[in-house]
Write a structure and sequence with these properties.
The protein is built from eight helices and eight strands. The protein is α/β, with parallel strands linked by helices. A hairpin with a 2-residue loop joins β3 and β4 (71-76). The termini are far apart.
């Protein structure tokens, strides 16, 4: 539903995209993505016979602390696919639902599911080897999309923003102080987000911005790339 380069936090469906749901049999939702919260009722109204499968159901979910001036509240971290262990559960659910909906193609689905599971396990193994020496280390990121990855491998994520909201001056100062105290020189930024605030922090800490793409279609390659960038950021 969300095209390449767009942010799920701010994206709005076009009439053509909504019409494309008319004959869909299944809709796999991530669970807590911004556009799903805003559009799910309308999506279901277009095709009330379409089965909606929540891929976050049954997963161990994380919260994100959101700061607004002098107060804060917690929201659910939607980026579950950035955790290989959770991706195994999500893939299993997709395979099961597809096999029920199209039983005549179950063997085809099974073969691809097994291939995918091997790749997920391979990615997990590589990341474990690369990131185990970094357990307990912190990293900066503009949009908090690597919380589940951080939990899986014992890292600490510190984000500048949440759901497209600009960081406050006080939060910017906290991030800069934290980076200086922990000798953090890298800030990860997704390609669809404004880099101005990240650039300010990078200038203050004498660091640099590294681009990542958690929404990449090629999930295994992107996960391996992020792992390698994390390793290099501490070298």
């Amino acid at each position: 539903m969300v095209p390449p380069g767009a942010s799920p936090a701010t994206w709005e469906a076009t009439p053509a995209q909504m019409r494309s749901l008319d004959d869909a049999l299944i809709y796999f939702r991530i669970g807590h993505i911004g556009f799903e919260k805003a559009w799910m009722t309308r999506i279901q109204d277009i095709n009330d016979e379409m089965k909606v499968v929540d891929l976050s159901e049954g997963l161990s979910l994380l919260s994100i602390d959101v700061k607004h001036g002098d107060h804060s509240h917690a929201g659910t971290d939607p980026h579950t696919w950035m955790s290989p262990s959770r991706m195994e559960s999500m893939a299993r659910k997709v395979y099961s639902e597809l096999s029920v909906t199209w039983p005549d193609q179950k063997d085809f689905f099974r073969a691809n599911y097994e291939k995918l599971m091997q790749e997920i396990k391979s990615v997990n193994g590589i990341m474990n080897r690369q990131l185990t020496p970094l357990i307990g280390r912190s990293f900066l990121i503009f949009h908090p999309s690597l919380g589940y990855l951080a939990e899986d491998y014992g890292l600490r994520q510190h984000a500048l923003e949440y759901e497209g909201k600009e960081p406050s001056p006080a939060h910017m100062k906290e991030i800069i102080d934290l980076a200086r105290e922990n000798d953090i020189r890298i800030i990860f930024v997704q390609e669809e987000f404004d880099k101005r605030n990240a650039s300010v922090v990078a200038d203050e800490i004498g660091g640099k911005i590294i681009q990542i793409n958690p929404l990449a279609e090629n999930w295994p390659d992107e996960m391996r790339s992020i792992s390698e960038k994390l390793v290099k950021s501490y070298q």
